[in-house]
């Protein structure tokens, strides 16, 4: 009970980003499994593990309202990922559901983190096509979208001109360095997050291409870079780092 209270009241450390509550939970589980692995009253230990797991998940969730100097989704992603890796290693039956929950939570926060940062390399294109989708959702026929002044063929060409291939690659390089700087090295999440970034970027690119085909058919308008170019940008950034 005292340990649960301590875990729930934990504060963000001044150095590092894995919460002390996560470390305390792991210490207790490791120690107790070693001490009581042959004990008769396994059920009591399972109850303690589950209660502590609830407390540590609660302490991570409370970060969303904490005054963090770094991205909240990133910190929550790293802590849930850390717990998931720990529980995969320990293989404790009563914590299987918590292991699955930790995986779900780190995946959710990684998706939010990726989405938040990925809008930036193609921000004006994103904004333009969000407007196009909004018009279609409001009932405007796809073939008539380009007759709206703000979404005319001329306006689309202007926005596309702002994103030549070399500038997109440069923006991705800056994004990679930014992620590398802020993700904590000990969790080794950079390859996972960067791959998620690549998948989301590809999804956005395909969506933009699809909207151009549907709403600007026959206009000859195309983005300055192809899907092959995009894959080569990601590949070269990954290999050079």
UniProtKB/TrEMBL annotation:
Coiled coil: none annotated. GO terms for biological process: exocytosis; Golgi to plasma membrane transport. It comes from the Eukaryota. Transmembrane segments: none annotated. GO terms for molecular function: phosphatidylinositol-4,5-bisphosphate binding. Residues 4-218 form the Exocyst complex component Sec3 C-terminal domain. InterPro entries: Sec3_C (IPR048628). One of its GO terms (cellular component) is exocyst. PANTHER family: EXOCYST COMPLEX COMPONENT SEC3 PIP2-BINDING N-TERMINAL DOMAIN-CONTAINING PROTEIN, SEC3/SYNTAXIN-RELATED. This is EXOC1 protein. It comes from Piaya cayana.
